[in-house]
Amino acid sequence: MPKVNLNRDAPLNDAAKQIYQYLQAQMGVPKLSKIMGYGQTTHCKRKKHPEDLTLEQLRIIYKEAHLTDAEFMRMVRAESDRNESRF
Fold first, then answer.
1. Least confident of 5-14, 34-43, 45-54
2. Strands, E, within 1-87: which ranges?
């Protein structure tokens, strides 16, 4: 599955890191790694660089953390992108 670029802006990464850390605190590292489908090394990489999360992993985070749409969009979308539509 292709990687999803979360834009390398600091506010986006901070939001993603906060949500990922929240999920880690709720589940624990072993259970989170199992659900996400990767090992300890990849877990550390995703925690440091959330822009490397795949679409499938983002969907798991959305579901398991019980995020609202607004919280999820804050994690993946820059403020300037909100008013732009390609369709």
1. 5-14
2. none
